[in-house]
Amino acid sequence: MKKVILTGDRPTGPLHLGHYVGSLQKRVELQQSYETYILIADMQALTDNAEHPEKVRDNIVEVALDYLAVGIDPKVATIVIQSLVPEIAELTMYYLNIVTVARLQRNPTVKTEMKQKGFGAHVPAGFLVYPVSQAADITAFGAHLVPVGEDQLPMIEQTREIVQDFARIYQPVLVEPEALVPKVPRLPGIDGQNKMSKSLGNAIYLSDPPDIVARKVKGMYTDPKHIHVDDPGTVEGNPVFSYLDAFDHDTDVVSAMKQHYRAGGLGDVTVKKRLIEVLEGFLEPIRRRRSEFAKDPAEIMRILREGTMKGRTAAGRTLANVRRAMHLDYYQD
Ligand code: TRP
Predict the structure, then answer these.
(1) To 5 degrees, how large is the angle CA 149–CA 152–CA 154?
(2) Whose CA is nearest to atom 3 of ligand 1?
(3) One pLDDT digit (tens) per residue for the chain, 333 residues
(4) 172 conformational bin, left if phi > 0, alpha if psi -120 to 50, beta if neither
(5) How many other C-beta atoms are found inside a 10 Å radius of the C-beta of residue 314?
(6) Measured from the CA of 149, which atom of ligand 1 is nearest?
(7) For the chain, which domains are there?
(8) Which atom of ligand 1 is nearest the CA belonging to 134?
């Protein structure tokens, strides 16, 4: 029996290079050797988008297209729409009773996001508890491995605690997952200040057309002290070089450029020109596959419908075990 992988994305916008480096790449790599579920987490997206359901709806297909474009193969990987698996919501309700509000308020990712969004005391209850619903996502499919970016580690940690507490209080019927964090450092945004993120407006999307990619790269933050071409420049924390590290296969060229940049004499314009070429080489086939798939919306819906059905079956099995462990199997069938 293959081990199970589960990951997910909130459908609040198209996926970007940070998603690729942080998680998509690993999913494509592992989809053959693991049973892979990929969740389009629309319920989680609604936890801070209650007033914009149309945004969530529109992005279901966008995210699905991004998956297919980067090489997720629907014949081996299962793409699931979260809200159409009510078993996840039911699991969430049971888990909520074994998690404290204090523990949720300590979750570092939730804390950061609450600050970023300026929620304060007016945080939607659903948002505060989304780590629990994410634990339900992960355990519903019996995931052993969760390929995620570093910022998601607190979610996996909280899931493991729920699994352990569930086992202690009821029975050990849930799989304790492990995070799989990529070795490459996480990709900064084009502002060089934060991780790449849709809400911070510093992302390059997998579906961005060439002129937008070029414009974004040209406007990228670099070393602010590198004013004249001859000035020595700093490579560390310079996002242009972080992107080259992530996407340029010619490591010799990249290290030569770094050396030259440090010594002085290599202009930002030249480095950015290289980056635009490298990104085009990466994005062009993705864009092409994306527009191929986009021509057949009925086929996308078929893939989502089938995946979601398969997902429900898996989640239903877990839920039956959970209900039995909690003595809720009243009819015993
Ligand atoms: N919280 C994740 C993010 O913001 C998305 C997500 C939802 C997820 N459910 C998941 C990730 C389950 C891994 C496993 O990116």
Answers:
(1) 140
(2) 9
(3) 899 999 999 999 999 999 999 889 999 999 999 999 999 999 999 999 999 999 999 999 999 999 999 999 999 999 999 999 999 999 999 999 999 999 999 999 999 999 988 998 899 999 999 999 999 999 999 999 999 888 899 999 999 999 999 999 999 999 999 999 888 778 999 999 888 988 889 999 999 999 999 999 999 999 999 999 999 999 999 999 999 999 999 999 999 999 999 999 999 999 999 999 999 999 999 999 999 999 999 999 999 999 999 999 999 999 999 999 999 999 976
(4) beta
(5) 21
(6) 15
(7) 4-187+297-325 (3.40.50.620), 210-291 (1.10.240.10)
(8) 9
- Look at residues 229, 233, 323, 213 and name the one whose alpha carbon lies nearest to residue 269: 229
Q: Scanning the structure block, which residue is given the tokens 């010594």?
A: 263
Nearest CA to ligand 1 atom 10: 8
Residue with the nearest Cα to atom 8 of ligand 1? 8
Q: Which two tokens stand for residue 80?
A: 């699931």
Instruction: Output the CA 157–ligand 1 centroid distance in Å.
Output: 13
Around ligand 1, the residues with Cβ closer than 6 Å are 6-10, 39, 41, 44, 134, 137-138, 146, 148, 152
Q: How close is the Cα of 241 to the center of ligand 1, in Å?
A: 28
Check if the beta carbon of residue 143 is closer than 8 Å to that of residue 175.
Answer: yes
Q: Is 251 exposed, middle or buried (0-12, 13-18, 19+ CB in 10 A)?
A: exposed
Answer whether 0.90 is exceeded by the pTM. Answer: yes
> In a mutational test of the pocket of ligand 1, which residue from 20, 39, 180 has the highest number of ligand atoms less than 8 Å from its CB?
39
> Of all protein residues, whose CA lies closest to atom 2 belonging to ligand 1?
9
The conformation of residue 206, written as its DSSP 8-state character, comes to: T
Residue with the nearest Cα to atom 5 of ligand 1?
Answer: 9
* Protein residue with least CA distance to atom 14, ligand 1: 7
